[in-house]
Amino acid sequence: MTRGGLAAKVQETRLWSRLMALAAIGGTAKGGVCRLALTAEDGAARVRLANWATARGFTVSEDAIGNIYVRRKGTDPTLPPVMTGSHLDTQPTGGKFDGVYGVLAGFEVLEALEDAGVQTRRAIEVVGWMNEEGARFQPGCMGSGVFAGAMPLEAMRAVADKTGATVGASIDALPTVGVSRDFGFPVHAYVEAHIEQGPRLEAAGDTIGIVTGIQGARWFAVEITGSEAHAGTTPRAQRKDALMAALDGIQALRAVMTDPDDQVRFTVGRMEVGPGSPNTVPGRVFFTIDFRHPDAATVQRLGDLVAPTLRAAAGPCGIAITETFTGPPVAFDPLVIEAVTDATKALGYKHHALPSGANHDAKFLARVCPTGMIFIPCLGGVSHNEAESATPEDCTAGARVLAETLLALAQ
Ligand code: GLV
Ligand code: MN
Ligand code: MN
Ligand code: MN
């Protein structure tokens, strides 16, 4: 098939209608999506994808950590497959594109191959990685982390959400969507399409981002233990106020977690105060820290300051700090970057190369096979927000680049 021939088979209306069909599963009143990992909504999205896949003759399978795979056969079953995909779960106030776009762009490529009657030597597998977001179960990128051997399967299946429900029990409660499988090595290459989730492509007026790698990240869970006391009577010197200790620690970290070129990303995204009564001094505070930076040495140095800085600020309170995720920066494979670049140029899209600020499953796949990513713009760079938006044209452009890239890699 000539270059661009497969891209021409990518259908904008089909891709868009699938995006909107999945956006309705967990759709919110404000136009966003709440489809937390392994909930009934996530299960329903998986069933929908599996139904589309089997209707088209593709094979569906799932593994012990809840990743779902849609496979289109190659002509040589002895060759390792090419993989693509992303995730079906969302943030609690997530949008219609973060994650699901990469899965459906991959699925659209399988359909385009069918429509074109093109056989590839290698099988192509579209994967929905379980719990990329890390909103319900920490850490995120759990399905790809286990797949890549970076997280232990049994320990991850034992992770519980706020209500005590475990990953393992939640996977077992999902509707079955395909045959059970092993993780499935080796993998020839992995390419993930995603909205940029930042403002750079839009600002440059470019349609395609050729992703060079992913910045480093360290996540922490912090538990501060004080002592409950009467708010009206307890003098300051006698208080062990867990919330004041948390605030002092976070304030001290804000001073440390800065840099002149605004590359440090420091977020306290979740905080629980116990017992949560207006007139009781808080005896317990739990909060999370998400810290990221593109440079490995800075990830190490600033990340290492988290525990001592919080401890120094804890005063009379007890403090327990757990590092729940450690991910050094990742550089993508030059051959995959080149394949994406060639496809983008052949299709004539305006593009530039950029690193990813957000985490992606590609970060773990990069440990086990040559990996790369394709970004498309999103409105205002807004993501992890119900207002997240991308145009049908850009979604199609990304799927076309993905199609030509996968075709080249699967021959
Ligand atoms: C998930 O979306 C992340 O980048 O943390
Ligand atoms: Mn995502
Ligand atoms: Mn996300
Ligand atoms: Mn993400």
From TrEMBL:
Residues holding Zn(2+) 1: H87, D98, H194
CDD domains listed in its UniProt record: M20_bAS
InterPro entries per UniProt: Amidase_Cbmase (IPR010158), Bact_exopeptidase_dim_dom (IPR036264), Peptidase_M20 (IPR002933), Peptidase_M20_dimer (IPR011650)
Keywords, ordered alphabetically: Hydrolase, Metal-binding, Zinc
Gene3D superfamilies reported for this sequence: 3.30.70.360, Zn peptidases
Cofactor binding: number and manner: Binds 2 Zn(2+) ions per subunit.
Domain Peptidase M20 dimerisation: 213-310
Cofactor(s) required for function per UniProt: Zn(2+)
NCBIfam families: hydantase, PRK09290.1-3, PRK09290.1-5
The family this protein is said to belong to: Belongs to the peptidase M20 family.
Protein name: Zn-dependent hydrolase
